[in-house]
Amino acid sequence: MRYLWRLLPLAFILLMAGCGKQNLSALDPQGPVAAAQFDLIKLSLTIMIIVIVVVFAIYLFVIIRFRERPGDTHIPKQVHGNKALEVVWTVIPIILLLFLAVPNVMQTFTLAEVEDTEDSVRIVVTAHQFWWEFEYPEYDVVAGQDMYIPTNTRINIELEASDVIHSFWVPALAGKQDNVPGITNEMWLEAPEEGVYQGRCTELCGEGHWLMDFQVIAVDPDTFETWAQNMATTDDDVEEETTVAVEGREVFEQNCISCHAVGGEGGNMGPNLTNFGEREVVAGFLEYNDENIADFIRYPQEKKPGSLMQAFPQITDEEMDALIDYLDSLKVLD
Ligand SMILES: [Cu+2]
To answer: Which residues form the Cytochrome oxidase subunit II transmembrane region profile domain (predicted)?
Structure first.
């Protein structure tokens, strides 16, 4: 037992390793913004390590060299008011701070430059308790939860919030920035490779904050154009393109459409569901499967505490099956 506590740090490391989610690390930067920010992290870390090593080396030297020996009454030479020393330990930190400040300030201005170019894409990201809305004004598209972007393209982002302060963070692509009600913050990012980049709200925004995850899905520019055009099509087109469970569509119209839009039709109180059938994740954090979808629709607050969605315990099994069939059929890329 006495030695067992020594294993605690190891257990802690193993426990924390379990927290890792794919692509949820700023230490594996993807794209120019994350890479530039990672360079600043490395620069700061290097300077800090040099300072620690030098200070500890001097400290160790001093406590060994000037330690009290038996019978030793000699007091070391006092350096109080020594001009040369004062200048040295004032100038060195100034130089180190300059090494930190110049690249940091330069990058801060570069990363704040949000300008539309010929092929840049603008996205208005609005945070809600507890979900994400992605509006593409150039395409007249609104999407929920999954932010589709074209690869190797400058994505200019406007951050807004509908209720309280949230914070938009896709660690692999860019540092976090706040969504503040009444204020529009701007940032940009670029993804070099196709794939799913995990995103997360990083500002405590209420009960369901810890489940306010989203995904950034980077696809090649042609696929993105197809996606955006199909997302923008009218409701009728969506119906034509998909094998609609007609009954499910009816259940949807009776219960869901006042808050959730499909195609151009429906409310905007909850996430847009035009491409729901293509999601890998339900409500930001649940595995996409029939059971999770049904449970969430019937008792949303049990899955996501604080969710503003109304509960629908009255939907029968038969209706639910049809509704899920319909939701499954909502695809824009197939
Ligand atoms: Cu939050």
So the answer is: 18-115
pLDDT at 217 over 60: yes
Helices (H), 265-316: 290-298, 300-303
CATH number of the domain at 194, please: 2.60.40.420
Q: Final residue of a domain: which of 165, 188, 220? A: 220
Q: Is residue 334 part of a domain?
A: no
Contact of 217 with 149, CB cutoff 8 Å: yes
In terms of domains, do 190 and 247 share one? no
Cα(first)–Cα(last) distance of the chain, in Å?
60
Domain range for 185 = 121-220
Total tally of structural domains belonging to the chain: 3
The pLDDT of 284-309, averaged and rounded, is 92
Ligand 1 mean position to 164 CA, how many Å?
Answer: 9
Helix (H) or strand (E) holding 127: strand 121-128
> CA 30 to CA 199: how far, in whole Å?
13
Average pLDDT, stretch 184-197? 94
Q: Cα(251) to centroid of ligand 1, in Å?
A: 31
Tell me the C-alpha distance between 170 and 198, whole Å: 6
The whole-number pLDDT of residue 220 equals: 96
Distance 16 CA to ligand 1 centre (A): 21
Quote the ligand 1 centre to 208 CA distance (angstroms). 7
Of 46-55, 75-84, 93-102, 161-170, give the lowest mean pLDDT range: 75-84
